[in-house]
From TrEMBL, chain A:
Keyword Transferase: no
Function: Filament-forming cytoskeletal GTPase. May play a role in cytokinesis.
Gene: Septin3
Any single GO CC term annotated in Swiss-Prot or TrEMBL for this entry: cytoplasm
Protein name: Neuronal-specific septin-3
Cellular compartment(s): Cytoplasm
Keyword Mitochondrion: no
Family: Belongs to the TRAFAC class TrmE-Era-EngA-EngB-Septin-like GTPase superfamily. Septin GTPase family.
Native source organism of the sequence: Nannospalax galili (Northern Israeli blind subterranean mole rat)
PROSITE patterns in the cross-refs: G_SEPTIN
UniProt keyword terms in alphabetical order: Cytoplasm, GTP-binding, Nucleotide-binding
Region (Disordered): 315-337
GO molecular function per UniProt: GTP binding
Residue span, Septin-type G domain: 45-318
From TrEMBL, chain B:
Assembly information from the UniProt record: Septins polymerize into heterooligomeric protein complexes that form filaments.
GO molecular function, one term: GTP binding
Boundaries of every Septin-type G domain copy: 40-306
Keywords: Cell projection, Cytoplasm, Cytoskeleton, GTP-binding, Nucleotide-binding
Gene responsible for this protein: Septin11
Protein name per its UniProtKB record: Septin
Region (Disordered): 397-427
Lineage: Eukaryota, Metazoa, Chordata, Craniata, Vertebrata
GO CC, alphabetical: cell projection; cytoskeleton
Pfam families listed in its UniProt record: Septin (PF00735)
Amino acid sequence: MSELVPEPRPKPAVPMKPVSINSNLLGYIGIDTIIEQMRKKTMKTGFDFNIMVVGQSGLGKSTLVNTLFKSQVSRKASSWNREEKIPKTVEIKAIGHVIEEGGVKMKLTVIDTPGFGDQINNENCWEPIEKYINEQYEKFLKEEVNIARKKRIPDTRVHCCLYFISPTGHSLRPLDLEFMKHLSKVVNIIPVIAKADTMTLEEKSEFKQRVRKELEVNGIEFYPQKEFDEDLEDKTENDKIRQESMPFAVVGSDREYQVNGKRVLGRKTPWGIIEVENLNHCEFALLRDFVIRTHLQDLKEVTHNIHYETYRAKRLNDNGGLPPVSVDTEESHDSNP
Amino acid sequence: RAWAPGRLFTHNEDLRNLSLSGHVGFDSLPDQLVNKSTSQGFCFNILCVGETGIGKSTLMDTLFNTKFESDPATHNEPGVRLKARSYELQESNVRLKLTIVDTVGFGDQINKDDSCKPIVEYIDAQFEAYLQEELKIKRSLFNYHDTRIHACLYFIAPTGHSLKSLDLVTMKKLDSKVNIIPIIAKADTIAKNELHKFKSKIMSELVSNGVQIYQFPTDEETVAEINATMSVHLPFAVVGSTEEVKIGNKMAKARQYPWGVVQVENENHCDFVKLREMLIRVNMEDLREQTHTRHYELYRRCKLEEMGFKDTDPDSKPFSLQETYEAKRNEFLGELQKKEEEMRQMFVMRVKEKEAELKEAEKELHEKFDLLKRTHQEEKKKVEDKKKELEEEVNNFQKKKTAAQLLQSQAQQSGAQQTKKDKDKKK
């Protein structure tokens, strides 16, 4: 892919040689207040977050999302209607929610993919998903190339895709590998082992190891991708997550039970109560902290700075440098005298 | 920072408000965002416009508590030029890449007609550089060193009367390109009662001439109050000094006169503290944001329209950038085609030349061959002729020989006959 010859950039009159001056000696200026200023501004504008869940029916996707965001994000879980038919093809359903916590407003969009992997012949069932993801990049690109742009371009791009692995205890299924191979190049994939309460601790740890090995052997780069570690600190932190914790073996629940005098989210079985947020029982808390409390912003940044840029570069190159044009506009343009 | 989080859209969308039944933890989002930005560092670029000697460098030194190395400019500059210097400052864990751009020679010329031009060109050049990066196919905006001017401090001379015409013209040219913060320099030369009149006059002149100076934001509650209070004191009357004088039992930045000491950080003496508050401690981020979302967007829009892009027809959806991209692409392809043609033609020409050469050579060869053939034929003929001659000679000789033999045999016969006759006679 050959690049068009870039036009020579006009040289600014700035000699780019920064001179380091340690200003701590001479008195307080107040530069560090910019952090507060930034924080205030971002709290005011709010955040968008778009999360997609992919996996076969019955793996607990809706329950997990509800547990993650501690609310009835997905109504499906609570009112699972047996008469609801499994769709004949993969459908993409995106529902937006507004949630607020500690003065921070978030517009959360959960994108469900009913029908994935549920047919007898599942060939290419990832294609509608890939198409949806690329459509969001396309939408953003179109807005970005406008002459008069919106102040804040609405962001519908998928920031994070949770892929639910069936807890067979053996290895990954061909469908899992195919999906992740195709999609890890366009979106951040976080593999998750669903319904982990069906495995004992040893089974769990062995399964995880096998899954990690298989992913590595197949060249599947899940989030956090090795090549995007920014510095040594990031690398050590992410290495630990990649090599030990992931894929997270989770259990979801939106019911509360009384355990040791506390109300906890859990699943009640004849042999005991599985506490969702207990790290000894499952890794839900790790997943939650990872996705929401520490890496949420990073998920968005990798989506914007890397996946979106890759899409944009490819699109502009394929089009010979042309940004995208939709068919309708050409028609209506022609109809104008 | 090329992208900031989006504002929530609550219309046109089927959004459901949810209540949380427990602590999820995304209230750490602002911290996550801030941490990212902190590790990358911030850029802040200030442009100082004002006459030579009005105190621009001193004020920068005072604001940032350092001595930025610079030699004072002369008054003999033939025109206005911009001098930019970058510095890296660090306070706690915040790294700031500060660039200070100075207008050297501003106001010194006899004819000041072209004074604004270099300034406008510089500001535009920074926007252009950013635009070029944004339009690239392979771009890296997230670690782009932003050189766009975030704040323009316009130094007004402390005449005590009104703005100079150069000031009005310059500010009018810059107000749609940069955030202008007007300040009165060397304010210790104006008495307090005159200062108030001077400020009012300046502000009313700005308003009547339609100059849009930077508005301190009042939409967010925490800063609205302080910004509103401070705005009243515009333009800030400042005094700069890096010299320290002992006041009471402390050392403070001040200017010592025989009649007293002007303390820079004393709000009764001048507005330096207000300027520092507004510029750095309260609105630095807003200045950066306004530069990006307002001034840069305006530049971009004008530039693209100038290049021939159209955004929307009244009732069709946007298809922006297509036409000019198409034109450019066709131009590019056309050039490629032209080059291809040229190369092809050159190739054809070369081939023709070679062909001609070869033909020449062939002709020569043919001629040689013909010549040789003719020569050979001639020789052959000669030989044949000679052969004929020889044959004739031989024939003649044979004839002669035969004739001679015949004669001889005849002679013999007649001799024999004679003898016989003689014999017969004798008998």
